[in-house]
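Changelog entry

Holo records now carry the ligand SMILES as an explicit input line rather than a separate metadata file. Below, a converted record for zinc ion, shown in the new format.
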Amino acid sequence: MRRIRPSRRVYTAIRLGAAISTMCLSGGAFAETVVLDHFTLIDGTGRAPVADQALVMTDGRITWVGPSGRRPAAAKSATSEDLRGKYLMPGIIDSHVHLGLVNGVDQNFTKYYDRANIEAQLRLYAAYGVTSVYTLGTDGDTIHDVIADQRRIGRVEMARAYTAGRGVVFKGSYGGVPGLDQSVATPAEATAMVERETAKGDDFVKLWMDDEFGTIAERMPYPVSTAVIAAAHKADKKAAAHIFYYDNAAELTREGVDVFMHQVRDRVADAPLIAAMKARGTWQLASTLSREASFTYTLLPFVDDPFFSRGVAPSTVATLKSDERQQRLAASPTFPKYPKVLTNAMASFAAEAKAGVKYGMGTDSGPTARFPGYFAHWEMELMVKAGVTPLQAITAATGTNASFLGSNEAGTVQKGKWADLLVLDRDPVADIRNTRAISSVYIAGRKVPTIWQTCVGRAADACGAAKP
Ligand SMILES: [Zn+2]
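Structure line, unchanged by the conversion:
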């Protein structure tokens, strides 16, 4: 009787397959290796800058980082770049954005929210060195297609997105965007919505509790927020809250919310609230100081700054400068309220940071006239104005923001992480505005066009010479 066993050819194929996979794992014949050398490293963990460091990136991941003199001999295929005099930090993470809502300054979810618009904005974030964004509760289901593709590809050419999907709005109250079905009337509806939406793959859960300076009848009632938080935790997701009022921040902390995505702004966060946040482990992931600051101007003060204007179409700048717009903003009943809101937000942030509340960096950019990328640099500048050091602002915007989501494999310059990197011509620890001196941006070890090589809505050379 013949015994049935695999043919010789099958054995050979298995052995060959094993050999190929071993080669891939060990960074063999087909690995893409890039070496960066002699830069000053700001690694995103909070560690002070270290001079004359080197980095090896293999297939988009950091495989070695350390003193230049101890760099391992590079693989034969390696390309190498001398970054003497430059500063290397992790790509920035903006923990509070909204994608795909606008065309210029015209905001309309129904008209503009699609994959092309989302991805164009993710490319613009990347040009500004913002290599990951957390999108905060105004997404249609398209975001899940974008993110699924990003995570399958890994080596993307735009900012990586993480989403709170459709955030939970209390029916008739503040929050969300017109055209997106995301409101609930009861705790039971809130539970059902969170179960339904997290099943689509949301990275975390968002709720809104606000009343637009008292102009809306009711904020989200506490039994609804309690239900949202419980359902999020049951799905093993963190619950993030839009807040404005001190009292709501205090109650949501008691309810076990994980993170605030704006500052307390009706007054200044005080010792009892800060003690409660620390005791419960509540994070302040976004302080959105640039959001509040933007509302204190009828004309944003940087519209002619090339770092800004390269990223927007000339028609957008013209709209921002129009008399009609400036008069309309000046006449708005909320306009006079914002200087105090900004002062309160900055003081709340400073008090929390000083007391040891965990804080990240987030802008709330994406809605009309709050611009992707530029606002992240402005936010870090405002954080420093409020009282933290440039190094602390950078750590918030990189390592701390990354650590909020366990799934974020970037945010620090460490072995095993994605090589999502920002290379600067000047020292950002000496002056936080030097984060704008962008020399290059890497996502997964490959350069993407920087804002200094970008000229939105015009011929490539219409913004002046591109910096290399
Ligand atoms: Zn927001």
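Spot-checked after migration. DSSP finds 15 helices and 19 strands in the chain. Confidence is low (pLDDT under 50) at residues 1-28.
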